[in-house]
Amino acid sequence: MENGYKVYIKKDFSEIDIKKDYDKVLIITDENVKKLYMDNFIRTLNFKNIIQYIIEPGENSKTLNVYEDVFKFCIENEVSRKSLIIALGGGVVGDLSGFIASTYMRGIDLIHCPTTLLSQVDSSIGGKTGINLGNYKNIIGSFYRPEFIHININTLKTLKHNEFLSGLSEVIKYALICDYEFLDYLLNNKSKILNLDEECLTYIVKKCSNIKIDVVKKDEKESGIRKTLNLGHTFGHGIEKLGNLSHGFAVAIGTHIAFRLSYKKGYINKSYYEKALSVYKAYNIPISFNGINSMDILKIMKKDKKNSFSKINLVLPTGHSSVEVVDNIDEEEILYVIQEVGNEF
């Protein structure tokens, strides 16, 4: 692919083609992925000097403390500018590994090997890295291109069902942003997708990765069109943290709030609003929440890194698979719609 984003979609890890010479390879992964893939992955790489750093699964590993611990490990094990970091895992592993690679000795080479649907279609592509600070998701981070991304489509078959559905929420997001026919594909092929049909999985991963690469090529540093990829995220990040939900499920709820707000503002009609919700319902992906204070969600939204001039930036649907970034919605309107969706649980 152009612009430095090379994505290879394969059926295993055996075709990873590392052309450069490295003095050391550091694989960063979590406990779950290590048990499933690490031994075979190391054999596949066929490098002599491989070291591993294993983190705990989940967002709690995207912290300054873990970041510092990995840095100390790198120094103790003589990781150099001629070394390589491989991120083997989901979005948390990828975000953390990318930030480490971008900042260790001012930057060393990075390869992503994403193992979850969410990371394969979204977080591994486009160079975003980040760690969290308290309730503020990815508030510390950088843009950093990997050498390439190697997707083993069969890792999706070892995911827990809810984790797969969480990733599917990001897939639906792409359809809602720019591909209305893809929305129908997801509805018409529900059974095959839920049964992890290899042809369907390859199709949706390729479709989403191509969409994201196309957007990133036009706007790498998220100053314009790339912001549209954040549909549901500004609402979702607060819900994710406060409700202890998966990223994908929180984004699905956030997308529902965005669609509800657009419908109430007259940007979209009732038919499209209901169709969008029908896709999430077809896959039994949650689109409402409970037990979270709506004002607390709004407070986190006001601290979102995408805001500017003290205005909340929202990605809102404006038509069939068409969205726009707006910053002119009153906080009272935003809060009211958050409360409406929360009350539907």
Highlighted features:
single chain, 345 residues, alpha/beta, two-stranded antiparallel ribbon, 48% helix, globular
Discrete helix count? 13
DSSP strand tally: 10
**What can be said about the biggest beta sheet?**
6 strands, parallel
Spatial extent as radius of gyration? 20 Å
Given as residue ranges, the uncertain stretches (5+ residues, pLDDT < 50) are none
Helix content: 40-55%
Overall residue-averaged pLDDT value: 94
Strand residue percentage: 15-25%
Q: What coarse outline follows from CA principal-axis ratios?
A: globular
Distance between the termini: 43 Å
The helix/strand series, from N terminus to C terminus, equals EEHEHEHEHEEEHHHHHHHHEEH
Strand order of the largest sheet: 1-8-5-4-2-3
Would you tell me the structural class of the helices and strands?
A: alpha/beta
Short description:
It is built from 13 helices and 10 strands.
Can you tell me about this structure?
This protein is an alpha/beta fold and 345 residues long. It has helices at 31-45, 64-76, 91-103, 117-123, 161-178, 180-188, 190-194, 198-218, 233-243, 247-265, 270-282, 294-302, 331-343, and strands spanning 7-10, 25-30, 50-55, 84-89, 109-114, 128-133, 136-143, 148-152, 314-319, 322-326. Strands 1-8-5-4-2-3 form a six-stranded parallel β-sheet, with helices on both faces. It has a two-stranded antiparallel sheet with strand order 6-7. It has a two-stranded antiparallel ribbon with strand order 9-10. Helix 5 (161-178) runs parallel beside helix 10, helix 9 (233-243) crosses helix 10 (247-265) and helix 9 packs across helix 12 (294-302). The longest helix is centred in the middle third of the chain and has 21 residues, at 198-218. The model has no long low-confidence stretch (mean pLDDT 94).
